[in-house]
Amino acid sequence: MHDPVRIGQLFPSQAPLGVKPAARSGTNPGGFKQLLDETELRFSHHAELRMKQRGITLKPEQLESIKSAIDQAEAKGAKDSLVVMQDLAMIVNVPSRTVVTAMSGQSMQHNVFTQIDSAVVIS
């Protein structure tokens, strides 16, 4: 019926099925860094190359607008979103907050965007 408890052992060796052990206070290994990572905006290697090739640079206020757009997409359950801002378009993987590719207004014309489930237009 019960698991035996040995001397020096405070708790049974295994938790019942479906029960996760409680986290101890002060020992959250991801903690602040994990929270920071969840709000950061990342750029894939491919996106960095495309931005460099196409002469795309982003100002801090533009980065904040993009982060806000990703937050909105995440709130609606989006996974892969097209973010359009002025003469810039980006495909963003919402759960990882990673810009997968970016293109300028010239590159956007006559393009078909596939494998997205949402679009956010930033004015």
Give average pLDDT, whole number.
81
CA-atom Rg in angstroms: 22 Å
Number of helices: 4
Name the poorly predicted regions: 18-25
Assign an overall shape.
globular
- Tell me about the largest β-sheet: 5 strands, mixed
**Helical percent range?**
25-40%
For the secondary structure, the number of strands is: 5
The SSE order reads HEHHEEEHE
User: Pairing-aware structural class of the strands and helices?
Assistant: alpha/beta
Strand residues, percent: 15-25%
Q: What is the topology, as strand order, of the major beta sheet?
A: 1-4-3-2-5
Q: How far is it from the N-terminal to the C-terminal residue, by CA?
A: 64 Å
If you had to describe this structure to a student in words, what would you say it looks like?
The protein is α/β, with parallel strands linked by helices. The chain has a domain at 41-122. The protein has helices at 31-39, 45-53, 60-75, 105-108, and strands spanning 42-43, 80-85, 88-93, 98-104, 118-122. The protein has a five-stranded mixed β-sheet with strand order 1-4-3-2-5.
How would you briefly describe this protein structure?
With about 120 residues, the chain is of the alpha/beta class.
Topology, element by element:
Blueprint (H helix, E strand, L loop, with lengths): L30 H9 L2 E2 L1 H9 L6 H16 L4 E6 L2 E6 L4 E7 H4 L9 E5 L1
Parallel strand pairs: 1-4, 2-5
Antiparallel strand pairs: 2-3, 3-4
Describe this protein with a few key phrases.
123 residues, alpha/beta, 5-stranded mixed β-sheet, globular
